[in-house]
Amino acid sequence: MLKKGFEDSFKEEKSTHLFHEFMDAKRYPQGKFKEQFLTYLQHKYISTNLSLIAVTDDSALEWVTGHRATFFPSLPIVYSGINQVTPEILAKKNMTGVFENRNLAQTVFDIKRMTGKEQLIVISDSSITGKINLNKIRAINKDPKAPKHIYEVIDLNEIDIATTLTPYSKNIPILVIGQLINPNQRNELIRWSESSSLLAKHTTRPIFTIAKVTLNNGATGAHELDGIQHAMQTSQLIKKILNGTEASLLQPILQAQSIWVLDVGKLEEIGINLALTPTPKVLINQKTSFYKKYKTYVWLTITAFSTALCIIILMAEIIRRTKQNQKILNINQQRYKDLAQAGANVFWETNQLGELCYISGNTTLFFNLSQQKMLNHTFESLLKNNNNIEFPWENYKVATEKKNKIKNLIIKIKLSSKDLKILMLVAKPTFDQNSNFSGYRGIIKDITQQHQLSERVVYQASYDQLTGLINRQTFNEKLKAYLSNKQNNQAPRFLCILDLDRFKLVNDSAGHLVGDAMLCEVATLIKQSITNKDLLARLGGDEFALLVNDSTLEQAQLTCEKIISTIRSYKFIWNERIFDSGISIGMVPITYGLNATELLSKADLACYKAKELGRGRVYITDHGNNSLYNEALQIGYIANISQAITNNQFFLVKQQIAPLSSSISEQAHYEILIRFKALDNKLIPPDLFIPAAEKNGLITLIDQWVVSTLLVRYREFFPDNNTLVSINLSGISLSNEAFVQHIIKLIKKSDINAKNICFEITETAAISQITKVQNFIREMKVLGIKFAIDDFGSGASTYEYLKNLPADYLKIDGSLIKNIERSQVDQQIVKSINEIAHMMGMQTIAEFVENEQINQILETIGVNYVQGYHIGKPCPCDEK
Q1: Are residues 252 and 354 in the same domain?
Q2: 168 half-sphere exposure, CB direction, 13 A CA radius
Q3: Is 766 helix (H, G, I), strand (E, B) or coil?
Q4: CA–CA separation, 120 vs 152, rounded Å?
Q5: Residue 409's domain is classified under what CATH number?
């Protein structure tokens, strides 16, 4: 940039000759290279009469002033790109210049303002420039406008990027004021552009630099010196000296101007508002309008079109002036050109009476008439009495009587083979030189395939391909149409959402093809349970929608219960296996106070409530019923999990798991739990957002955040570095192969002792994902990870599955513990579970221990560990 600025400044100075030499002191700072460079200059310029020496950068200035007395004592020196203003430089005689003296303090202030972060990672190198830049940043360490915590990383090599940055939070911005080093090349500095690219490969943090070349190479923005202005200022000083002014009389320029260059795409990715960015600035990678982006091509197209239009007009004028003896030839040429472009199967012309005077093509195939037999006859006389031909005579008659164009008349012909041919007739009136009507010229085109394709496309756009029912889009349109026509007495009265129960087990155990077959049979059973006035649709997956036309709520409820009974008694048989099924239904009365979206939402929530209440039932809600309020809240809370993570709305708490026997290891043991803080700082209980996150497939994001956060902050939470932590994993997450591989990778990279980590998997999740859970446990145990089966005894517990799961702990569900002092049955069940767990080599943990009496009973039974409010309430992990 500086070199270009010098050359542009002296472009018109024909008497001034510039010589450029590149010292490259940053890459080769050793003394031997500088000596070689000096020898090179002595030989090259031994006979050149120099008027002035201009130097760029601190290393070059230091080197020149060091050899000045010996080699060029009388030459004035003009410096540029100098990072720090010092009294020593200002005191030098016969020397002036422009200091780079970057305002790095403002750079740091700007980054804090843009990102809103109180932490900053600064990456520098050990070069002179790097040290000067770093000292400038250290000078503002206590400034309130600067981030509270500034972390320094010096001489970072490309191999250590990931391990060096891992300890820092993922959302801390990076400021690069120096270059990375290459350990394979004698720690040489890596180019700025390559440095930023390497950083971007290993981190998603926003990267800011002081070099424009890093943009489009991973950097979000660069606060770069305005090189052109810097060179222009230096050039002005040089010109004054060459024109006779002494260098010592020219005051150095102490502060260079920098300007922000920001990548708009990167800013949008990390959520930085353009209003927070500093000025002046240059924005790159902005979205431009189609016209601005392709302005040249647009005008070229317009010009080409205009030219073509002029040519067509000119050709028409030439044709009009053609001699009479060429008229017939030209008409024939135009005729075939027009018809050929239309891709016709039959070309035809009529006279002013409508009689065919010209016809070509395979007329026998379509009309069972030869061309010869059709000439001198009208279409009406030839085809009107043919019962196998359906012709739109009324439209044809209206157009021909008014001598209008005949547009896209559809002719349907039943062939002797029973096939149906679809033809399209198009024609335009023709006129002689005196504008007298002379007949029609047109085509007949076979569009059978296009017609069939069009009908197929319309069908596919409206119907579900698997079940043959109408799809979600068509159902929504019909529902909106019913709601808009308030006078329609035949409109349906009730809207239902139907969702199959336990369908996922079929897909997971037998495959999606078998699941599809089951869906087809279920759709048929539902159709058989409703009337022709009702409307059934498949919304997707195992979810259906139904518009019921029954006149009363009781009748509609009977219809729903009939469907539930039919599906409950239905057995799907595949490969000698029998699958039971069920269906849950949510129903809402249709009134005109709600729109289609609101009705569907209420019906969907009602279906969710039906499942929550035990599945295999219908749940009915009306517009004044607030029983679905919690479900709506749940969906609201998890609507944007990613944004909640970014906003730090989640935090971790811990609850103690205490040993009951003094013979057990006294290693501290906690279960890690998650809490959610709404934007108004209100704490949201887990039972309000965890179920909705699981239902809507977002629980994996939460699980991933919990594991990642705990691994990063483990030493902060547990300074003894020897605390056992239990982390809950959802069955949905375990079925996600990408999640499993990510967790394995995180644990392998972590420096935490794997024996201090225990994953808790619920009994239900373990049974439904038995193969995947077994594989996950097996791979994790190789690393030393422990496992616990959670909530054992809450459902249809089976020891058959338990013996196939090599877990370390068995957590007895709280429903068996909380009433144990009053229920002998619960005591015996807990005792049985405890004994069998011990036989299988597992230790037991009892949940919901709320008082000392429960604690003593469990100690008598021989349970190993206890957990509950009597032992300790959950508290924040960072609370000591």
Answers
A1: no
A2: 23
A3: helix
A4: 9
A5: 3.30.450.20
Q: State the DSSP string of 829-866.
A: HHHHHHHHHHHTT-EEEE----SHHHHHHHHHHT-SEE
Handedness of CA 698, 700, 705, 706 (dihedral sign): positive
Structural domain contains residue 634: no
Residues 382 and 257 in one domain: no
Task: Find the catalytic residue in 155, 263, 542, 826.
Answer: 542
In a domain, 313, yes or no: no
In a domain, 679, yes or no: no
Residue 799 belongs to a domain with what CATH number? 3.20.20.450
How many structural domains is the chain composed of? 4
* 292 found inside a domain: no
- Torsion on CA atoms 700, 702, 703, 705, rounded to nearest 10: 120
Q: Which helix (H) or strand (E) holds 544?
A: strand 543-548
Regarding whether 511 and 407 lie in a shared domain, the answer is: no
Q: What values do phi and psi take at 590, rounded to 5? A: -90, 120
pLDDT (0 to 100) of residue 100: 76
Residues 853 and 727 in one domain: yes
**pLDDT, tens only, 151-208:** 999 999 988 898 999 899 888 999 999 899 988 877 788 888 898 999 999 998 999 9
Residue 621 neighbours by CB under 8 Å, 6+ apart: 586, 587, 588, 602, 605, 606, 609, 627, 628
* Structural domain containing residue 378: 324-453
Cα 761 to Cα 236: distance, rounded to the nearest angstrom: 74
160 noted as active-site residue:
no
What is the three-class DSSP state of 407? Answer: strand
Longest dimension (CA), the chain: 121
DSSP state of 470: B
Give the pTM. Answer: 0.39
42 shares its domain with 173: yes
